[in-house]
Amino acid sequence: MSNLENFVNVTSPEHFRALLSKDLERVSLINFWAPWAAPCTQMNEVVLELAKKYPKLLVLQVEAEEQPDITESMDIEAVPSFIVLRGHALLSRIPGADAIRLTTALAAHLQSPAAPIPTPLEKKETPEELKSRMDGLMSKSKVVLFMKGQPDEPRCGFSRQTVQLLRDNKVEFTHFDILSDESVRQGLKQLNDWPTFPQIIVNGEFVGGLDVTKDLFNTGEFWEIYKSA
């Protein structure tokens, strides 16, 4: 993609660690991306321009699904996602295709050895209020998909496959982006006793994730559940 010395495609966890350890005072931008996600393609161009603008910045391109060990070690759950480090110290996390926020964060960190940018405290709601809100979301329509991103712009491979599965089977559904609400994201894990996303809800009840739903379509059980209410 580029011949810039400060723009590097990471090929392995060992390569990743070696690059970060070479200069512990250097600011690094790690771009977690996937080739199937249109927002990643757009942000890759932004990242390339940032590498050109800031020659002292080390830009590391990590294809998230090709480097799962790195992706998991950095707690990345969706693409695009960006992490800014100084050496091994975390300075910022920027989720999503937010070019303005990414550019602003880099400008601040490259001007001085700034401390990590504090994040505002989220508004608290009682467990009862959260439960009521989640029940409402789960009953929003006959089929509700809790996913990462939007149906036309999913932010993880499993969400992308689930959207395609529902569309292939001509299932009408509404969706909720769990990356937009941390309370709902964590609450659904407990409520449905299911630690990952996407989650599929039919008639207000949790059905399963991608693999379970595939099996239900293969056996015909999905439509039995669908018609049961």
From TrEMBL:
<dbReference type="GO" id="GO:0015036">
    <property type="term" value="F:disulfide oxidoreductase activity"/>
</dbReference>
<comment type="function">
    <text>Monothiol glutaredoxin involved in the biogenesis of iron-sulfur clusters. Binds one iron-sulfur cluster per dimer. The iron-sulfur cluster is bound between subunits, and is complexed by a bound glutathione and a cysteine residue from each subunit.</text>
</comment>
<dbReference type="GO" id="GO:0046872">
    <property type="term" value="F:metal ion binding"/>
</dbReference>
<feature type="domain" description="Thioredoxin">
    <location>
        <begin position="9"/>
        <end position="98"/>
    </location>
</feature>
<protein>
    <submittedName>
        <fullName>Uncharacterized protein</fullName>
    </submittedName>
</protein>
<dbReference type="InterPro" id="IPR004480">
    <property type="entry name" value="Monothiol_GRX-rel"/>
</dbReference>
<keyword id="KW-0479">Metal-binding</keyword>
<keyword id="KW-0411">Iron-sulfur</keyword>
<dbReference type="GO" id="GO:0005829">
    <property type="term" value="C:cytosol"/>
</dbReference>
<dbReference type="GO" id="GO:0005634">
    <property type="term" value="C:nucleus"/>
</dbReference>
<dbReference type="Pfam" id="PF00085">
    <property type="entry name" value="Thioredoxin"/>
</dbReference>
<dbReference type="InterPro" id="IPR036249">
    <property type="entry name" value="Thioredoxin-like_sf"/>
</dbReference>
<keyword id="KW-0408">Iron</keyword>
<dbReference type="GO" id="GO:0051537">
    <property type="term" value="F:2 iron, 2 sulfur cluster binding"/>
</dbReference>
<dbReference type="InterPro" id="IPR002109">
    <property type="entry name" value="Glutaredoxin"/>
</dbReference>
<dbReference type="GO" id="GO:0006879">
    <property type="term" value="P:intracellular iron ion homeostasis"/>
</dbReference>
<dbReference type="InterPro" id="IPR013766">
    <property type="entry name" value="Thioredoxin_domain"/>
</dbReference>
<feature type="domain" description="Glutaredoxin">
    <location>
        <begin position="143"/>
        <end position="207"/>
    </location>
</feature>
<comment type="similarity">
    <text>Belongs to the glutaredoxin family. Monothiol subfamily.</text>
</comment>
<dbReference type="Pfam" id="PF00462">
    <property type="entry name" value="Glutaredoxin"/>
</dbReference>
<dbReference type="InterPro" id="IPR033658">
    <property type="entry name" value="GRX_PICOT-like"/>
</dbReference>
